[in-house]
Structure formats: structure tokens, C-alpha cells
Amino acid sequence: RSRLRGGQLTAEGVEIGNLDEDKPAARGLVPPGAAVLEVLCNRQSVLGNPFDMKKREDLRDAVLDAYADFLQAVATGASRVDIEGLAQKRGMPRDHCGRDWRVLYDAGGGACGVRAA
Prior knowledge:
Elements: E1 8-11, E2 14-16, H1 60-75, H2 83-89, H3 99-107, H4 111-116
Antiparallel strand pairs: 1-2
């Protein structure tokens, strides 16, 4: 049973949505979707953003930029990605790297595991 009740079409056959859409603050933001396959892309999967704002809205751009750096490194074939180094490059301390995500990343084979996901 699909959990995503709506999504934004971004390419043929690809929708992006938010599982938090059932929360009152998100209702109506994402139109009804028709996804057949759902891929979890949060910190509960290796595809999620490992960098955490920790409720500091001023870090939003840094977190997204570090995630883009991470995805670029993975997509270009890096065998290892220095997550903490990427965080520090964008002005975040090491504790802004999700520990639970890091366990999944390491157990899944690191960058190779992300590419396989």
C-alpha cells in the first residue's frame, strides 16, 4: 500500500512528495499523485540527506549544499565520501551529521551502497 498520497511530477514516471503531508501544516501543498513505486529518501534510508539543521533554519542552505556535494561525489564514483569534511566545508560542526543515517550508510557499504540503492 502506498504511503505517499500526493506528489509533484518531476520527470516522466518520477514524483517527489513528502510523507509528512498528512500533518496539518503540509495539507494541500502536494497535489494527488499516482506513483507506482515509492522510494524512501529521508534519514531512514541511505538516499536521505545525512546533514541535519538541528532546528537552525539559518543552516538550510548549508545543509542542502552539503547534500548536493555528497550526491555529486557518490554519482561520480567516489568509493569513500568524507561526510564530516563536507559538513565542515559548509560551516557545520560534525554533530550536524546524522548518527542514525551514518550507521545505515556504513552498514550498506558506503558510497557504493548508495549507488546500488
